[in-house]
Design a protein that fits this description.
Blueprint: H1 10-34, H2 39-63, H3 65-75, H4 80-112, H5 119-132, H6 138-166, H7 169-175, H8 180-190, H9 195-213
Helix pairs in contact: 1-2, 1-4, 2-4, 2-5, 4-5, 4-6, 5-6, 6-8
Family: Belongs to the cullin family.
Protein name: Cullin N-terminal domain-containing protein
Organism: Hibiscus sabdariffa (roselle)
Length: about 210
């Protein structure tokens, strides 16, 4: 069909129809399946739909690979896989991102409390933000990371007063762990606010340690 005009004509029509297939399917099947779901049920359904979407994308990219070879670079339009993944993200996360993100952050907070959670499920949802970026962290940083850090800061700000009263200096500092970027956010709540109390607690611990040695 594209043999005599590999950069236009029927190629343009096929490219548009390729994208329309995804839009119609997501609007007609995926979004209705997510409506009314909350928390873990919403996350699980999103994970299932994303998995199906990737399978569908993989096969259609193979069927229309000819477009990727000639039409896409000539017209400077998104490659087939990128276009399909973005279609899912724009339509699904454009409507449900806040609910999905909150449903993922909530079990992360529960895990900090010592509760066992479905880590694989959380990881799979977070990976969607990364996969859509096709090597870029743009979507993860913009639509998930910032909100997660704010929730993390709020979590530690509520825990710090209790920890500073009941934990030793060493145990308190052990709780202040994590990735560098996360530490930058929680540092104020964990360290700076209680700088004087921590110094006093450290002195007490060191004094007690000295007595034990003698």
């Amino acid at each position: 069909m594209c043999k005599y005009n590999p950069t236009g004509g029927i190629c343009e029509v096929l490219y548009e129809e390729y994208n329309k297939v995804f839009k119609d399917y997501i609007n007609g099947r995926v979004l209705p399946s997510l409506q009314g779901k909350k928390d873990e049920a919403l996350v699980k359904e999103t994970e299932r739909r994303w998995s199906d979407h990737k399978v569908m994308t993989r096969w259609l990219v193979r069927f229309f690979h000819y477009l990727d070879r000639y039409f896409v670079p000539k017209r400077k339009v998104p490659p087939l896989q990128e276009s399909a993944l973005l279609c899912f993200y724009d339509l699904v996360f454009g409507e449900f991102n806040n609910q999905i993100r909150d449903a993922v952050v909530s079990p992360i907070d529960r895990e900090r409390e010592g509760e066992d959670i479905d880590q694989a499920l959380v990881k799979n949802i977070v990976s969607i933000y990364v996969d859509v970026g096709q090597g870029s962290m743009e979507y993860y940083e913009r639509d998930f990371e910032e909100a997660m850090f704010k929730a993390t800061a709020a979590f530690y700000s509520t825990k710090a007063p209790n920890w500073i009263k009941n934990e030793s200096y060493n145990n308190y500092m052990l709780k202040n762990t994590g990735q560098k970027k996360l530490l930058e956010i929680v540092e104020y709540e964990l360290i700076s606010v209680y700088e004087t109390e921590l110094k006093e607690k450290k002195q007490v611990d060191e004094s007690l340690g000295g007595l034990e040695e003698t």
